[in-house]
Amino acid sequence: MKKWACLAMAAAMAAGCSPSGGNQGAAGAKKMLPVAVRTATVKPGEISEKLQFTGELESPLSVQVSSKSQGRLGKLELESGAEVTEGVEVKKGDIIAEIEHRDLEAQLALSEAQVQQAEAVLADRERERRRLEALFAGEVATEQARDTAVAAHESAKAALAQAKAQLKLARVNLDEALLRAPMDGVVAERYADPGAMVGASTPILRLVQMSPLRLMVSVPARMLPILEPGKTPVEVRTDAHPGRVFRCVVGRIFPTVDEKTRTAPVEILLDNERGASGQWALRPGMYATAEIRMAMRSSALMVPASSVVRRARGRPAPPR
């Protein structure tokens, strides 16, 4: 009986292990399929680290021109007769607008006449002073008469100085009625038309500088030590000129870092150019993308990008 019990137990154990053994045999029977492989040579090359920023082009200089005196806007034109309106280019010092100034011209003429009168009075008082001083020296005139002549002469000198100051003020008022361009630029906006009443707080024109333009970007503080004003290269692209690259350098790094974003403003200046039609290639307000080269390795080993296997979820599992 013991012999038959041992044989039954052995048979049961063999029956329970047979499926596992069968699976292992099937797995071992699988064959590895061939895989197509392409080879490439690893070569040394130049690798640069770039950061990309976006923003709007803007003019470094934008000035609103207004009158210092109140009056009626007479003309908005250059000395050549060209109308001053949006898109017109002006040079520094050009007369771009005039406030009606007939009353100022009359005040200037009056001030000039007062100066001439004060000069004549002064000349007369000077002759009288010399005469009485000579008479006093000859003991003919009294000391009181001489002192009166001296005082009259000094008063005439003060009156002439006052008249000249009034004349200078009249000339300044008349000159300020002629509005001159404070810089080279282009008229971006015109706020008033001839005939309108304007005052000291009334803007008439807005002038902007067209070259160079600037692009302000916010660079992380940890990257600031790598940047060198005037040396770090920048490539700028705009939607208005697809495929064209505007090459420039970092112009200025602002001294403070924003406490919330931990970034610092960096100014990039772009030399603007004119096209064949005379139009500016870049304009303030255009959307632009800037790539700043932060670091470079000249002898790095490079492999083709096609050799990297990418999956939708995570990285490929390492081979076993």
Overview of this protein structure:
The protein is α+β, with helices and mostly antiparallel strands. Helices cover 31% and strands 30% of the residues. It has helices at 2-29, 102-137, 143-176; strands spanning 43-58, 62-66, 71-75, 89-90, 95-99, 178-180, 185-190, 197-198, 203-208, 213-220, 233-238, 246-253, 263-270, 287-302. The relative contact order is 0.18. Mean pLDDT is 85; it is low at 1-22.
Give the low-confidence spans: 1-22
Q: What's the total number of strands?
A: 14
Question: Approximately how much helix is present in the residues?
Answer: 25-40%
Widest beta sheet: strand line-up: 1-10-13-12-11-14
By CATH, the superfamily of the largest domain comes out as Efflux pump adaptor protein, beta barrel domain
Fill in the CATH topology of the largest domain: Elongation Factor Tu (Ef-tu), domain 3
Radius of gyration: 44 Å
List descriptors:
320 residues; alpha+beta; Elongation Factor Tu (Ef-tu), domain 3; OB fold (Dihydrolipoamide Acetyltransferase, E2P); Helix Hairpins; 3 domains; 6-stranded antiparallel beta barrel; 3 helices; 31% helix; 30% strand; disordered N terminus
Summarize this entry quickly.
The chain has 3 helices and 14 strands. With 320 residues, the chain is of the alpha+beta class. The strands form 3 sheets. Strands 1-10-13-12-11-14 form a 6-stranded antiparallel β-barrel.
What does the secondary structure layout of this molecule look like, with pairings?
Blueprint: H1 2-29, E1 43-58, E2 62-66, E3 71-75, E4 89-90, E5 95-99, H2 102-137, H3 143-176, E6 178-180, E7 185-190, E8 197-198, E9 203-208, E10 213-220, E11 233-238, E12 246-253, E13 263-270, E14 287-302
Helix pairs in contact: 2-3
